[in-house]
Specification:
Elements lengths: L3 H20 L11 E4 L4 E3 L9 E5 L6 H12 L1 H6 L3 E6 L14 E4 L4 H5 L3 E3 H11 L14 E3 L2 E5 L5 E6 L9 H17 L2
Parallel strand pairs: 3-4, 4-5
Antiparallel strand pairs: 1-2, 1-5, 3-8, 6-7, 8-9
Helix pairs in contact: 1-5
Length: 200
């Protein structure tokens, strides 16, 4: 049987996950517009990314993250299937082209170096600061143990955006091991196409 202190620590992580995920821009809301840079060094307005086709947008922590690398590999491998359902694909990270090991010729890689776009979407957090506060709320009179980064972190996420800039699908989990699967993305893009056909 789990002890009360261990239960409270697990509960603290659940509360942290819930609080962070609730802050992220909701379904139906529009993406904030701002200027980003692609890996070729060109300035790209966010609003230009979805003007002609729906946008499959991936947010990665960085190429040092094995789960992000796996997600980018999946997106690259299934890019033709996704594009066949009528979308463009963009992946955003906080790295420059020189820093990143992400490579692809199937979609656009974009940098959010200052994390400004992530902040506007409510996707950033300070893990140590926030989990420490929750410990105190729960009466856990111990120091935070394990790996809790003191720097500003991003929630990895996958969005599908319509041509009005509205969020139609969102998979955003603080647990960075949980990612949208290729089959989920196919299903959501197919539903988007079905809705479009009904309104033609």
């Amino acid at each position: 049987m789990i002890s009360k202190p261990e239960y409270l620590k697990l509960r603290a992580v659940e509360i942290l996950n819930d609080r962070i995920e609730r802050k992220i821009t909701a379904l139906g809301e529009r993406l904030p517009d701002m200027m980003l840079s692609n890996f070729e060094g060109e300035k790209v307005p966010v609003s230009s990314l979805y003007q002609e086709k729906p946008l499959l947008l991936g947010f990665m922590r960085a190429s040092w993250c094995p789960y992000c690398r796996a997600q980018v590999t999946m997106l690259d491998g299934m890019a033709d299937a996704f594009k066949g359902l009528g979308c463009e694909i963009v992946v955003i990270s906080r790295e420059t082209a020189e820093e990143s090991t992400f490579t692809t010729d199937k979609f656009t890689l974009v940098s959010d170096l200052t994390n400004e776009f992530g902040r506007k979407l409510g996707m950033t957090y300070f893990a140590t600061e926030e989990i420490t506060a929750i410990y105190r709320e729960l009466g856990i009179d111990e120091e935070v143990e394990g790996y809790w980064d003191t720097s500003e972190l991003n929630v990895p996420a996958t969005y599908i955006i319509d041509t009005d800039g509205r969020i139609l699908f969102k998979h955003a989990k603080r647990d960075y091991t949980q990612r949208a699967t290729g089959s989920e993305i196919i299903r959501e893009l197919s539903l988007l196409n079905q809705r479009a056909l009904r309104f033609e």
